[in-house]
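User:
I would dearly like some help making sense of a protein record. Take your time, and here it is.
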Amino acid sequence: MKLGPATLVAAAFIGPGTVTMCTLAGAKFGYELLWAMIFSIVATIVIQEMSARTGMVSRMGLGEALRSHLPNPFLKIIALFLVLSAILIGNAAYEAGNLAGAALGAYFLLDLDTEMAAIILGFLAAGLLYIGNIRVIEKILVALVVLMSISFLITAIATKPPFIPLIKGMLIPKINWDNLLFVTALVGTTVVPYNLFLHASLAKEKWKVEEMSSMRWDTVVSIFLGGIVSMSIIIAAAAIGNGEITDVTQLSKSLTPLLGEYAGILIAIGLLAAGLTSAITAPLAAAYATSGILGWNVEMKSFRFRAVWLTIIAIGILFSTLKIRPIEIIQFAQVTNGILLPLIVCFLFYLVNQKSLMKEYKNNKWQNLMSLLIILLCIGLSIRTLIKVMG
């Protein structure tokens, strides 16, 4: 089995926002929401498979496919404007949160000033993207994902979670008014809008249609690995059983009695890796989406492509050094994510059911059923975030 672009998807969705949300979920509800994370993993696999399949069969990124296959000219202009605006604004917010989160990890691990760390990490991300070799980036991100996985998995195992509550939390769904928002948020931090553009663009370059089974294995294995990271964070936070924990910093301090001085090191390594992987993939995805929508040359070394990701990184560095608390930046990114997600998933659902585009590879009934369920949850998440903003 060949690992491919889905490893970048896993690297992208395990960012500081996911770390923060999983920490809050575990601290507030214990092991109760592990089932929601499992559902989120399944949902992500379903949606990302559709995205990659669209790229492979059409030989276009999602931006290009939207531009060429939306029938109504007026609808096309409105849709492309909304998607482009949301991608740029959303990814800029994500990038600020990614760099702020990674800088926090660097502060705990290396005692670096967070502002200086954010600048250094931003330049590091820019340097890797400037190389313009997706295989090099892929290998670096795989290494970071493995490092992050080991860090959080060791942390979770060291807390010695009780077997029965752990299994119940994984297998028995519990939904009530208290945890409903967290359930939808866990889905929202895993099914990330810009990953759909990233996966489609990379899949059309990496895979041929004859390699459909390889693409699917790559998607399942990579996203499952990312899901293990998320579940490990929930388990570690659940071991504390303290609903007052509000971020990963407090989680690190609370785990010190259990893990000693290694608690801070493990959490710091995980947070640094999570922020850095997402800091690389968010601007890359924005460049793919923008180039496809505007009909530019989708080439990593082209001037316009580089201009987009450089702008996203520059905005990220700026906002991450404005002394705004990282949690506030991350929360703003989650709001933009919640608003954008249903829009992108609906467009993807439309494209993957077009026989003229997908031929015999269009969705079957079971894929459509699962997709519609996920779309409904995404709409619920969007409504929740809008109510929160208005409130």
